[in-house]
Amino acid sequence: MATILCYGDSLTWGSIPNGGRYPKHLRWPNILNDLLGKHHQVINFGLPGRTTIWNDPFLEGRNGLSYLQAALETFGPVDILVLMLGTNDLKRHFNVGAFEAAKGVEKLIEKSRIPNPHGFPSPTLVIIAPPNILSPTGSMAESFSGAIEKSQHFHQYYQDIAAHNKCIFLNAAGVLQPSEVDGVHLDAQGNDTLAHALHEAIKDIIQS
What we know:
Blueprint: E1 3-8, H1 10-13, H2 28-36, E2 41-46, H3 64-75, E3 80-84, H4 98-112, E4 124-129, H5 140-143, H6 147-151, H7 154-164, E5 168-171, H8 188-202
Parallel strand pairs: 1-2, 1-3, 3-4, 4-5
Helix pairs in contact: 2-8, 3-4, 4-7
Protein name: Lysophospholipase L1-like esterase
InterPro entries: Ester_Hydrolysis_Enzymes, SGNH_hydro, SGNH_hydro_sf
Keywords: Hydrolase
């Protein structure tokens, strides 16, 4: 039995564009679990607003680096760690781009490989470059001002980080785009597409 920990933000948590949360069967980690089979465990540890390494002055507890070790110990031993973070890094008040988001992901990779007090082996890492941001609407339009162009560079920088650190890489922008409803979050089809793409990426390394 493999344990797959999905560590992400609202796109992993299951935010519905413009408000609400999808029922479990429509969130991509749950769909992935169905594809892998019930004898494996896929854990959804997404949190809306989570960043790679930044402290958000408006949202408490969103620094991904601060909580990763606790998550790995809580759910460990973790066989596969899926990291999909960086979208929130592009919010205007952080004033960073895709390059800095990728460097934040690299810090998460390093953190996941630090020996832990329980002797758990380091997980296999899957790095997902977040989908490109479309035209944010509603309450997110101001927060993500300038993020559309920045998000176009996720793929390049994340692929470099994944290759340098010997991680499996998946470019979400290559298989889907966010919902046009709000330009950031995934629709139901996007969740399904991402689950199937990730299944293809990891199925051969998971023992039945």
